[in-house]
Specification:
about 650 residues, alpha+beta, Beta-galactosidase, Chain A, domain 5, 2 domains
Length: about 650
């Protein structure tokens, strides 16, 4: 290519570039063109949507579905549920069986207990008392059927007609079947007798041996429930709520009541598992046993529920053509005698104990024995004649104080003896310097011994009374009898009494003022003051005295949200103690006590058998007594140094 051709091509390119630049549309023209294009697209989209709506309207009018639902849904359900595919769809319906005490609602979805109402009771704000209710609850079997994981809680059960359902002479029954074919099904049967809190529940498996794997020796039963709050004091109710369970042939145990969450992997056989609240429980009892269980609970601080309970239970399964696995439900109050009676009925003719009454926390060891064999019998006896529980607590307190009067008398006399000896003790302390505290103590103890005074005589009776105080500390907050029973200004003796609501919350105290707690603390201060005036060593232990006065202040914070029955009892105890001390003081004279003590000091101090044996052993070893040593140190008259 020659030089002229190259120059010509370059000039043509420059001309084209110049032409395109000169003819390029402005920004406004580009925006206008874009808007026109968007408008065209919008019109086209609207036309397509209108055509689609028209097609749908025509389909509806002609009532001809685009696809056959049976052909579209069932293949997917059969892939997921296998022989249970036809039970995977349905409409949930509720069925009710009831008696005078409970109303049990059973759902067709899962055949499970959907709600339980206790007819005789209400919540603290007068609403129906529901142990649990709603879709958040779960109860069903989990197993593998022909390599498919099946959960009966997701499937629909069919109620049996009355002429086919199990006959019951008295009460009501309901049978629900989950079909897995023409002659194969899982059946739940509920039987509720008149006037009973106990529901007979059985799982019947018919023709399931070919569906469930031949090597299967157990089935998993999952039970979960959100339990609503029933009581006025949510925190206190939560502190007495937890999952309780009984080992087969062993004791009753529970998850932590104080922890926000807790779980336990129980690898031994169980008899029953209970979703327990402060005053009510739902208990699932195995007629045979649960092989093992995984249980957990979660504390809920907001909303209508106080706890989430979950129990994964493993039940024995023999893989027979027809098999029945019997259980029982207990839906009712945590009333000691009621639970005890049901346990005795169930245990008749069997070699194990149900022990459901142990869900009531009466305390361990001696505290539980005192509540079970002394407090509860007296309380129940008084219930037969007196309807007012405030009066019953008053009479119970009087009974206990009369029973303990000999100890109170001994304690008062011992304290009086120390008081009348206080001037003599002060004289000893003046003779002995303050820096010789050990010598002061020895001199004081020697004086007590010569006068025949036991310095522990006033403390030991109080220590003997201490188990009763602790036992009642456990009894009153969990006593079902006191629930929603009022006395004076207290509307419910099982929770705190409030005479004034604060517009704010005081840490560790609360947002209310409990009058029974105030009266208890004031009477405790008076009692402490009286005792400090009677104690000989009050001036020697100022720190102890301060601590004794701090105790009522601490109790004011601790008891403000406790059961008002407990504060009321402690207040009565203090007031009756004042009366007993006034009676004792009227016939116990300080002058007579002092005269008797001075006479005791003139008598030779008797040695105990233990002290005599020690001295005899010392003589055999050649060890001199302290008195012999002192006499040996004294020189005879005229002896040389």
């Amino acid at each position: 290519m020659d030089k002229n051709s190259i120059i010509g091509i370059v000039l043509i390119g420059l001309i084209l570039i110049l032409f395109s630049v000169l003819n390029q549309p402005s920004r406004e023209e580009i925006e206008a063109a874009r808007e026109r294009q968007d408008s065209l697209e919008m019109v086209r989209q609207q036309q397509l949507e209108e055509e689609a709506r028209e097609i749908i309207r025509e389909d509806i009018e002609e009532e001809t579905p685009l696809v056959d639902p049976e052909e579209d849904i069932l293949p997917g359900l059969r892939e997921q549920f296998g022989v249970f595919a036809e039970s995977a769809t349905g409409e949930e319906e509720n069925y009710i069986i009831e008696n005078e005490k409970i109303r049990l609602t059973i759902s067709s979805r899962g055949g499970r207990p959907w709600a339980v109402e206790l007819k005789e009771y209400q919540t603290w704000d007068s609403l129906p008392l529901m142990l649990f209710e709603g879709e958040d609850n779960e109860f069903g079997l989990n197993f593998f059927a022909r390599n498919r994981s099946i959960s009966t809680n997701e499937l629909f059960f069919t109620p049996l007609p009355e002429d086919v359902a199990p006959a019951v002479e008295e009460g009501q029954s309901l049978a629900m079947r989950l079909y897995a074919g023409e002659n194969s099904y899982i059946e739940y049967v509920y039987l509720l007798a008149p006037g009973s809190y106990m529901v007979d529940f059985s799982i019947n498996l018919v023709g399931m041996d070919d569906i469930i794997g031949a090597g299967t020796s157990f089935l998993d039963l999952r039970w979960e429930a959100n339990v609503p709050g029933q009581e006025k004091n949510r925190d206190n109710e939560n502190n007495y709520s937890s999952i309780n369970y009984k080992f087969l042939g062993d004791d009753v145990d529970k998850l932590s009541e104080r922890a926000d969450s807790d779980q336990e992997d129980l690898r031994t056989r169980l008899k029953w598992v209970a979703f327990k609240q402060q005053f009510f429980s739902s208990v699932l009892i195995a007629d045979d046993n649960f092989i093992n269980a995984m249980i957990s609970q979660q504390r809920l601080d907001e909303g209508p529920y106080i706890r989430n309970y979950l129990a994964d239970l493993r039940i024995p399964y023999e893989n027979m053509p027809e098999e029945t696995i019997p259980f029982k439900f207990y839906f009712g109050p945590n009333h000691f005698n009621t639970l005890r009676n049901y346990s005795l009925q169930y245990e008749a003719g069997k070699d194990y104990y149900l022990d459901m009454e142990k869900m009531v926390p009466l305390g361990w060891g001696i505290f539980g024995w005192l509540n079970r064999f002394m407090v509860i019998p007296v309380f129940n006896f008084l219930e037969n004649y007196i309807a007012n529980y405030g009066i019953i607590i008053l009479l119970l307190t009087i009974f206990i104080k009369i029973l303990l009067f000999p100890l109170t008398y001994k304690s008062y006399v011992s304290t009086s003896k120390m008081r009348v000896l206080k001037p003599q003790i002060d004289e000893l302390n003046e003779k002995i310097p303050k820096d010789k505290a050990m010598e002061r103590q020895q001199a004081t103890m020697a004086l007590y011994k010569r006068a025949g005074v036991n310095p522990m005589g006033g403390c030991l009776p109080m220590l003997i009374q201490f188990p009763i105080l602790i036992a009642l500390f456990r009894f009153f907050p969990t006593s079902f009898e006191l629930r929603q029973e009022g006395f004076l200004w207290a509307t419910d003796l099982s929770t705190y009494d409030s005479i004034f609501s604060l517009p704010f919350t005081i840490p560790f105290y609360g947002d209310h003022v409990s009058l029974f707690t105030l009266l208890m603390c004031i009477s405790t201060v008076i009692y402490t003051r009286m005792n400090s005036q009677m104690t000989a060593s009050s001036s020697q232990m100022p720190g102890m005295q301060t601590m004794m006065y701090m105790m009522p202040v601490m109790l004011l914070f601790i008891f403000n949200s406790f059961a008002s029955a407990l504060s009321y009892y402690y207040f009565l105890t203090n007031m009756i103690t004042f009366g007993q001390q006034a009676i004792i003081k009227s016939f116990v004279s300080d002058e007579d006590l002092l005269r008797k003590l001075n006479e005791n000091k003139k008598k030779p101090v008797s040695k105990s058998n233990f002290q005599k044996r020690l001295e005899e052993m010392s003589k055999k070893r050649g060890v001199k007594s302290p008195k012999a040593k002192e006499s040996g140190k004294k020189k005879k008259p005229g002896s040389r140094r």
